[in-house]
Description:
Blueprint: H1 2-27, H2 33-105
Amino acid sequence: MAILIAVLVLGFLFLGFLTLTYVERKRGARFFRGFRARLDVETRAAADLARDVELVRSLFGKLVALVSAVVHEVVHGMLLGIRALERVLTRTARKLREKAVTEDVQ
């Protein structure tokens, strides 16, 4: 029911728009000229603002993705360095254990 009402309202608004433009064309002048001119300016400004907001949101999203990728690469490099250090320490600990075992045996 709500959809039917919405469609009817939109249909009446569209018919009103077509009637208004027809009458204005026949008359050769616009109704509420000053008000509509100000409304056009305000609408254009709102559209520009919306476009700028979308641009800022898009740039912010790209910045977040870039920072995320950089942080991922930095953390990956740190993990590789820690794994290399772990291998060195594991070899050193193994050599020290082997040395301690051979000294205990002798």
